[in-house]
Amino acid sequence: MFKKLLILSTLSIAMTAIVGCGLLTVTTTEPTTTLSDETTSTTETETSTETTTELTTTTTTTGATTTTSLIDLIPEECSAIPIVDGWIPTWCDEFEAALPNTIIDPTKWTYQAGGGGFGNQELQYYKNADPDNVAIRDGALVITALKEVYSSNNYTSTKLWTQATASFKYGKIEMRAKLPYGRGTWPAFWMMPKTSKYGGWPDSGEIDIMEHVGYDMNTVLGTVHTERFSGTNGRGGTTDSLIPNTVPSIDVANTWHTYGIIWNEEKIEWYFDGHLFGTVEADEKWGNGYSADPSVDWPFDQSFYIILNLAIGGTWGGAQGVDDSIFPATFTIDYVRVYQQDYVTGDAESPSTIRMPRIYWQSGNQAFISWTPATDDLRVKSYYVYVNGVMSKKTSVNAVLLINLRLSFDNIVTVIAEDYAGNLSDPFDLIVTA
To answer: Secondary structure of 132-196 in the HEC alphabet?
Structure first.
């Protein structure tokens, strides 16, 4: 549902901020401001060929929005999964039965076949639906890496992804699995952006839910990669932080464990068997001297798809060589599940008005502004930022880099918060003098 917004600002707070060597005055405004662009109060959905994953579906009829609760959208194959702490299963693969030709369910996964190292000098070739490399046995997906020569590679394995079938934005995403044993193995459960709206890797982000290398058995890493934090400079956590105070020891090869993240607008958290071991938060102090867009460090406001693979060797997995005596090596996955919290049903309030805008950086016609996040009885979804009555940015984080401000002019910047039910906060108007 789209609607024009007529903003009546009644705030009269004034504040000042020291920026560089100058004094910048920021003042809220009282005049009526008409916002010429339209905002949407519907929740995001994926295309018809993909799974809808963000909270609820909405149907608009003559100005009224009808919401369908997530609990009514649980797929039949996920109906036996218990709802715990309000987490509703919206997508899953329990790997109960193999299919004659594809082995895996083609409505959920496709194969990525090929070799060539994948930018990491990996040694395997990923084959397409080869039963020697992928099978469903006893209610689990088994990915097997073999020591065999294939297409100029000395090892074969399998890589599956949901790139063509489903992508996800926010939620709880988890896998129950046993990891391979042995030096040279590199299993991963990870996510990549569907459209890479901020540019190629690593600018649009990567979420590694679980990575493990065989020469460092029983240490599992969770990491995100972004424009400024990529490769070995990624941010996240490791299960070593859980030992010995949270768990006495970890055996990833012989024991089932659950690996997952909880991802929302504000942060990504990594969990091992329900124990938190790492957190990366969206931070108001983004960028180099605040001169970069928040997406530089937080591109995680877009849909990502899931990847499962077992690599051999490579710059990290093969850092201490490959032990050829370990093959066949197996990566066994009991299930992969995606859950969402319902932030629409029961929403009774609009978000609060934002507070305490801060201008961290300004140069010419650009300014980096931040504010204290709005609050909501359930959850704030996003912020609409207008400059001089025209839509400038929509962001899920409480900061934005403004560009093309009018020079020698009092620019009126308006920030409005929106929750998942489409309720809007009162606007906060401020003047940025460029």
So the answer is: CCEEEECCEEEEEEEEEEECCEEEEECEEECCCCECECCEEEEEEEECCCCCCEEEEEEEEECCC
Helices (H) and strands (E) counted in the chain, each on its own, are 0, 30
Could you tell me if 427 and 73 are in contact, meaning their C-beta atoms sit under 8 angstroms apart? Answer: no
- The per-residue pLDDT for range 222-262, each reduced to its tens digit, is 999 999 888 888 999 999 999 999 999 999 999 999 999 99
What pLDDT does residue 368 have?
92
DSSP state of 43: P
Q: Which CATH number fits domain 2-43+348-433: 3.40.47.10, 2.60.40.10, 3.40.50.360, 2.60.40.2550?
A: 2.60.40.10
Confidence of residue 286 (pLDDT cuts 50, 70, 90): low
Question: Is-catalytic flag, 349?
Answer: no
Portions of the chain given CATH number 2.60.120.200: 72-340
**Spatial distance between the Cα atoms of 370 and 360, rounded to a whole number of angstroms:** 7
Contact of 176 with 333, CB cutoff 8 Å: yes
Q: Cα–Cα distance between 98 and 104 in angstroms, integer? A: 6
Segments in 292-433 forming alpha helices (H): none
Region 72-340: CATH code: 2.60.120.200
Q: Which of 174, 211, 227, 269 is catalytic?
A: 211
Residue 17 CB burial class (10 angstroms; 0-12, 13-18, ≥19): middle
Given a cut of 50, is residue 331 above it in pLDDT? yes
Long-range contacts of 279-287 (CB under 8 A, 24+ apart): 279/237, 280/224, 280/235, 280/236, 282/396, 282/397, 284/358, 284/360, 284/370, 284/397, 284/398, 284/399, 285/360, 286/368, 286/399, 287/368, 287/401
SS3 state of residue 295: helix
Dihedral pair phi/psi, residue 216, rounded to 5°? -125, 65
Does 76 participate in catalysis according to the annotation?
Answer: no
pTM of structure: 0.86
Look at residue 35 and tell me whether its pLDDT is greater than 70.
no
Write out the two tokens for 393. 């940015």
Q: What are 47-65's pLDDT values in tens digits? A: 334 554 554 333 333 334 4
Q: Which of 122, 206, 265, 284 is catalytic?
A: 206
> How far is residue 323's CA from residue 180's CA, in Å, rounded to a whole number?
13
User: Would you state the structure tokens that stand for residue 399, as one six-digit string?
Assistant: 């900061």
